[in-house]
Every structure is written in C-alpha cells, then in structure tokens.
Amino acid sequence: MRRAALATALSFALTPAFTANAADLDSTTNLDSVVVTATRTAQTQDQTLSAVTVIDRADIERLQPASLVDLLRGTPGMALSNTGGPGKQTSVFLRGTESDHVLVLVDGIKIGAATNGQAALQDIPLEQIERIEIVRGPFSSLYGSEAIGGVIQIFTRRPEGAFVPSFMLGVGSYSHLSGSAGLAGKSGDGWYSLEASHDQTHGINACRVGAAEVGAACYADQPDKDGYRNTAVTLQGGYRFSDEWDGDARLFRAEGHNWFDGNYSDSDESATQVVGGRVHYRPSKDLTFTLSLGTSGDFSKDYLHGVYVDRFDTHRDVGSLQADIGLWGGLFSTGFDWQRDQVDSTAGYINAFTGVPVDSRINRGLFGQWQQTFGSQSVQASVRHDDNSQFGGKTTGSVLWGWDFTRTLRLTASYGTAFKAPTFNDLYYPYYGNPDLKPEQSQNIELGLRGTYGWGYWTFNAFRNKVTDLITYDATTQAAANVEDARIRGAEAVVSGHVSGWQVTGAATWLDPRDESNDSYQGNQLPRRPRQMARVDLDRSFGDFSVGGSWYVAGRAYDDLANQHPLGGYALTDLRAAYAISRDFKLQFALNNAFDKSYQTAWFYNQPGRNYMLTLRYQPAQ
Fold first, then answer.
1. What is the pLDDT confidence band of residue 473, given thresholds at 50, 70 and 90?
2. CA–CA gap between residue 80 and residue 88 (Å, rounded)
3. Confidence of residue 12 (pLDDT cuts 50, 70, 90)
4. What is the pLDDT of residue 32?
5. Which among 382, 470, 325, 331 is positioned nearest to 138, based on CA atoms?
6. Which is more confident, 122 or 11?
7. Which of 369, 384, 523, 574 is the most exposed place for a label (fewest CB within 10 A)?
8. Burial of 545: CB neighbours in 10 Å, binned 0-12, 13-18, 19+
C-alpha cells in the first residue's frame, strides 16, 4: 500500500492534469472564487497565502457523495474515522492533529460540543450546504481555540435568482430514502431562502461480531442493522437598507436519530442548531464594520434498549465586532470576539478540587491582522489574545509571506502558533476531569509552492507541527493531565486541469504523525491517521449525459497509541453518471465502493459495502 500511494503521488507530480483540491472540479482553471475563512476578509483563492480547499454546490452535485463525510474524504490532509456507517460518530484528523483540533463554523458561527470538543459533521446534510471552505494550518491568531489543524467553514444554501424552487428525491441501498425541497429568491434589495431535507437508512451492522469477546470498539455483540434518520431545515434572509447598511439572519437545525451497538447505550437522539445574524456598515470604501451575534447548540440524549440513559447538551452564545480599515495600500483588521459555553448534562460537571458544580465559562478574544502587497510580495500577519474564565490568558500569532517570483509561480512560507482549550470533559467530568489543565499548544512551520497556467494549476505544501501539553488520561493520578507531546511532519500535493475533455482531479498527502512523549509510546504513530492518502476524480460531459469516477487510497494506520491494533490500507472506487432529462430535471446514479471492499477506519467497526443511490433533481435553469 505504501508503494502504491508513493507511485500515485509521483504520477500527480509528473502529470499536469489535476486540481488544487480533491473536490474543486468547477474551477479547475479559475482561482478567482472569493474565500473569507483564511483571513476573515474577502479575497480571491489565488490571493490567499494559506492552503485552501473550496467545494461549491456544483461540485457536490457532480461528485454525488453519500454524505458530508464522504465529500470531505480525500481532501488534502484530511483523515476520517467513522464508527459504523451513515450517521455514526465521525472524527476528523486534519494534518495529523487531534480530532478536536479543527474548528468548525456554520455561516461564521462556531459549532460543536463543549463536553467532548467535537462537531457532529455526520449530522449536517449535504442538501443544506451551498459551499465549504477548508483552510489548513494554525489559525488561533484569528479564531482562538481549536484551530490547530485548521478551520472548516460550511455555508448554507442561498438564492441564485429571482425565484428558485427546487426539490430532490433519492432511493438507494440499505433502504436509503432521501428528499429535500427548497424555495429561494431575491426581491428588490432583499433575499430569502428556505430549505428542508430528510434522510433515512436501515444502515449496516455497526460493530463486527466478536467485539465484546476481545474488548474492542462497542464492547457488545448486537448483530442487527443500525439505522439512521436525519431531518434538517434552513431559513435565512437578508436586506440592503442603503449603500452603507445591510444585514442578514439565519436559522439552521438538524435533528438525528441514530442506532448503534453498545453496552451502555445503543441509540441516541441528537440535534445541531445555529441561530445568528450579521450587520455590515460601510461608511466609506476603506472602512467596514461587522457586528455578528449568534447562538449554537449541540444536544444529545442516549438510550439503551429504548430506555433513557443520560443527556449531554451544549449551549454556546457568541458575539463579534470587527473593523476592516484600508491603510497605506494594505488592509488592517481588528476585532473582539466573545463566547459563553454552557453545559446542561445529567453527568454533573464538578470541580474535583473544590466540589463546586461548574456549568459555564466565558472566553474573550482580541485580535489584529495586517495584509499588504509590496510589488511581487505579500504579507499577512496576525496576533490574538484570548482570556478564558477557566485557565486565564493565551496569546497566539502567525506570519505568512508570499513571493510571485515569476508570472506563474508563487513561493509561500509561514509560521504560526495555536492552542486548544480543555473541554468540559477534560476539566470537570466525574472521576476524570482535572481543573488544573493547561491549554494544548502548537508551533507550525510551512513552505509552499504554487503554479498557475493556462491548463490549470498545482500546489505543494510541506509542514512541521510541534504540539505540546496534549491532554490524555494519566494512570498515576487517575485523571486527565497534560502529559503528551506530538510531532507531525507532512506534505500535500494537488494539481488540476483538463485532459482531452476530461476534468481530472488529484490530491496526495503524506504524514508522519508521531508521539514524542517520554513514555513507552514514544515514536509510535498517532492513532487513526494513515501515513499516505490519495484521491483521483475524473468527470466528463457528453451533451446531456455525464460520467465520472473517484478513486481513494489510504495507507496503514493504527487504532491505538500502543500501535497494537492495525487498520489495514485500502482502496475505494466510486462511479457516477447523470442525465439531463430537460433544462430543469436531472437524473443521477452513484455506485459507491464499486468493488465491495471490506475496510475499517476504527477498530472492529464495519463500513458499507457496495451500495448505490438513484436521485432525481429539479431546479429551474437560471
């Protein structure tokens, strides 16, 4: 598997036929799409000094992924670990960092559970998504905690015309039924959008038989189908009051019911919710103020054989005021972020040292950023100080530099620090939490090279990330502690272009994520992170008919830090076709895992075999 991944990576470097990310097929020769996540300001993708992947609505419908998790699989630096198929808990390891070292935003509002620190990406339906921006690298100097590996920002769907109705119906393997309906439009200076979706499947048996006997995974043998249901709605709108003032507001809620195998609980009801609004004031072309307010929630109830067990709910209130000022040919941005996390749980979060219950904390962050272009060179520098009511202050910073040393080639270099605040589980969970925990910290160095040509473009990034004070269980104190360090080295190669009418996309990632703690695990590979990953996408249209395919390969990984439980390398092939019945109707067919490969991304957890999805879409042509 290692030789296969290396050969794939070499072929990418030698063939000018691939895109700058594994899903960006719509703009293979166009880097003019606007991104905001890399700097908290609008700039074209070509202007960014960071490693960025953009996936838009056209990409989603062309690639026909079964879920958001399948869509993200194969993007540069992204490793995913799923515990038993659709709707099951999924962890994201971006550039080899921990699963809670990636910040997830929905329309600019942070989501995720303050209890375990992870966002439920498996519960966000694709039909609600308009666009995804993935920025890799340390971004705590702009966003605060969690952005050690990078930031994933999801934008919900918005109107493209005066009146745009749409619907989708799908049927597939494992009794999979999916449907959505939407209505969006623009009228005068206002716009609105309403989208509702439902998805359900009988699923597969999440955990392999024999797990209970070997003490693996779910610790239970329940040979049944573990299904999943998800219902979601997005409602949003905006209005331009004048040339200086405009605003928008939105509501997103996704509710899931998930069945799995376990001896403590075997099903749960969950919900992810985002409510927010934003106001822009532009008194001049060189000055913009943005006020954002919002709240997000992550709610979960666990059941065993239909009997209620416990509840873990997170409420997060956020506010931000940002000013962007044009000065001396550059752009200075400064702002203040405020965040309050509240936990409502039957677990009872208590300070183990004082015996006092703890259910909330507040974080305040002040940041500044400077962006400037000097001829062929560009600079982006930022600094931020966070003050947390639990652990005090933390300052982070980053500097990025770019040099267009020819008309087609750009060299980039960067250095940045980041941190991750301890979660409520780390601090206060009964018989585990440690109120004295310090934030996890990282130092990242990166070099990049980018080429842009008439046929397309390519990028190459190499990085080294040193993460210290990792939080884990300390057997000597029988509680959480800052006892681990990690060193992650890696490289990403992505290229794009058209070959004989085909859109061909490829990405390859090499990682060396190692434990550097002074213990028996020193030098071991960090869990659930393959050292090699690669993906190729090919798509072509023949009039009203289009065909495509994707090939994904992952190298060997381990499920545990002791490296005793290997996860074998594997390769997956997905095939797809679509037919435009008319200007407004399209029929799509996807065959996933076409060769019925058996594989696992978490020890003893099953993954879907060969499966299909047939979809009918309606949307009036604009």
1. confident
2. 12
3. very low
4. 66
5. 382
6. 122
7. 523
8. exposed
8 A C-beta contact, residue 153 and residue 108: yes
Share of the chain above pLDDT 90, in %: 80
CB neighbour list of residue 479: distance below 8 Å, 6 or more residues apart: 352, 431, 432, 433, 434, 473
Q: DSSP letter at 530?
A: -
pLDDT number for residue 11: 36
- Please name the amino acid found at residue 410: R
Query: E strands of 406-475, at which residues?
Result: 409-420, 440-453, 456-474
Overall average pLDDT of the 446-474 stretch: 92
**CA triple 523-524-527, angle to 5 deg:** 145
Q: Which tokens is 527 given?
A: 């869990």
Whether the Cβ atoms of residue 11 and residue 505 lie closer than 8 Å to each other: no
Query: How far is Cα 90 from Cα 92, in angstroms, rounded to an integer?
Result: 7
CA gap 506, 538 in Å, rounded? 9
DSSP per-residue string spanning 270-328: EEEEEEEEEEEEEEETTEEEEEEEEEEEEEEEEEETTEEEEEEEEEEEEEEEEEEEEET
Distances (CA, A) of 299 to 78, 112, 379: 26, 10, 41
**Interval 314-347: pLDDT, tens:** 999 999 999 999 999 999 999 999 999 999 999 8
Tally Cβ neighbours within 10 Å of residue 352. 17
Output the CA–CA distances (angstroms, integers) from residue 481 to 161, 470, 476, in the order listed: 54, 8, 10
Among 101, 94, 98, 92, CA closest to 122: 92
494, two tokens: 């992505």
Residue 474: predicted pLDDT? 74
CA angle 581, 68, 32 (to 5 degrees): 75
Four-point Cα dihedral 325, 331, 336, 338, nearest 10: 120
Confidence of residue 15 (pLDDT cuts 50, 70, 90): very low
Mean pLDDT of the chain: 91
